[in-house]
Amino acid sequence: MKNQLERGLAIAFGLIFIFLSLLVSIETVIRKVFNTSLQGADELGGYALAIGATIAFTMALISRSHVRVDVFLARFPRRLQTVLHWLSAMLMMGFAVLMAWLAWETLMDSRDYRSVSQTPWATPLAYPQSIWVLALVIYAVMSTLYAVLATKWMLQGKYAQINAMLAPKSTEEEIQEEVGDLQARSEVLIRKPQDKISSGGNPVTGDA
User: Fold this and answer.
1) What is the pLDDT of residue 82?
2) Residue spans per domain, the chain
3) How many angstroms separate the CA atoms of 95 and 92, rounded?
4) CA dist 199 to 57, 188, 190, 202, Å?
5) How far is the C-alpha of 44 from the C-alpha of 136, rounded, in Å?
6) What does the alpha-carbon distance between residue 105 and residue 122 come to, in Å, rounded to a whole number?
7) What one-character-per-residue DSSP string does the chain give?
8) Predicted TM-score (pTM) of this structure
9) How far is CA 15 from the centre of its chain?
């Protein structure tokens, strides 16, 4: 479930910025060739940044990629490390819930006052803000689940589970992930020519 959520968020994140890059490219060509503008690339860029950032919050939480100053963490006793990990989960939950609540209040104000963007498009702000709030709610829910699990395990004395869920990735773990990704990409590249050969095609020319 966790891996599926992380993959879904990563795909959404990638699609947002692929769309934005295509739009900016089209905007650049139109300005250069036709001396005109879509007058919306900057506005959509702001929405993409806000929504993409909130999606990244959850991705970083699931993949244990939030930045930490851990110069002294590894030198602390294991029990103290566990307590600090639990404390980080509680603070993360408080931050995420606060952000989601403030975003919801902003969305309600935009809806009540029928606020629009100060651009030629005059986009009703409630539309992009709804997606922004949804991403923050997902982040708040996941942070709360992590905090609840960490508290449960803390009371049960399951310190290893807390460290496995919340501790920052070690250098060895990051190297293993990179090696695994490299092997997966290599297998895909090797499999494609083999598939062409098995189907009767020429892997060099592509002729059947």
Assistant:
1) 93
2) 2-65+77-167
3) 5
4) 44, 16, 15, 9
5) 19
6) 21
7) -HHHHHHHHHHHHHHHHHHHHHHHHHHHHHHHHHS---S-HHHHHHHHHHHHHHHHHHHHHHTT-S----TTGGGS-HHHHHHHHHHHHHHHHHHHHHHHHHHHHHHHHHHHTT-B-SSTT--BTHHHHHHHHHHHHHHHHHHHHHHHHHHHHHHHT-HHHHHHHHSPPPHHHHHHHHHHHHHHHHHHHHHHHHHHHHTT--TTT---
8) 0.80
9) 12
30, pLDDT greater than 60: yes
Nearest to 197 by CA among 208, 188, 187: 208
Q: What is the pLDDT of residues 148-184, one digit of tens each?
A: 999 999 999 999 999 989 988 777 777 887 787 778 7
Written as six digits, the tokens of 185 are 């990409």
Quote the pLDDT of residue 189.
72
